[in-house]
Amino acid sequence: MKLTHILICALLCLATISCQTQQAQLSVTDLRPADLLFHVTPDGNAITDVTPGMIDHVAIYLGADSVLEAVGRGVVITSLDSIVRRSGYQLIGRVRRVDAQRSITQARSYLGRSYDWLYLPDNDDIYCSELVQLSYLDHQGKPLFSTIPMSFHDASGRITDYWIQFYARHQMAVPEGKPGTNPGELSRRPSVRIVGRLK
Q1: pLDDT in tens, 149-191
Q2: How far apart are CA 139 and CA 148, in angstroms?
Q3: What are phi and psi of 31, to 5 degrees?
Q4: Which of 90, 121, 109 has its CA nearest to residue 23?
Q5: How many Cβ atoms are within 10 Å of 100's Cβ, its own excluded?
């Protein structure tokens, strides 16, 4: 049964990669404020090992060639050019029913916050998809994205050695199942439409 589950997950992953690589090529001028930039890393890493697809980061397009993101140095504004030059590529996610201006204002309110290296809920630090989840509002001011149970396990259901060792260094149990988000799952929400690949 586990082998069947692994094969199904592998096929779904390959289908996701195939769909991503066939996306329309869009330019910077096609971006709209509050679009999401999902970073695809074809080689994979510890994040993509335990989340859907090959997406390991998400950033918020502000307009005027600038992006807001939560990275190692905290919540910062980054030039779009520096995002485009990163290895891998960006998929553009357009959010339905979003109040773009209100969401961007909310996102900007987190500028300067420290990065949440432990991916924990209910603290002042913020990681990339958490920034989106906390910031995006509809036209009634209600959050667009709920949290989901955090996943640190692979397709077989086993928590990977990387995350066991990572949290052990912090004298913590892996927060499997705690409320949170991840960029791969966020890209698949019904309110997010992938409109193309940024060239």
Answers
A1: 999 999 899 999 999 999 999 999 999 999 999 999 999 999 9
A2: 23
A3: -70, 145
A4: 90
A5: 18
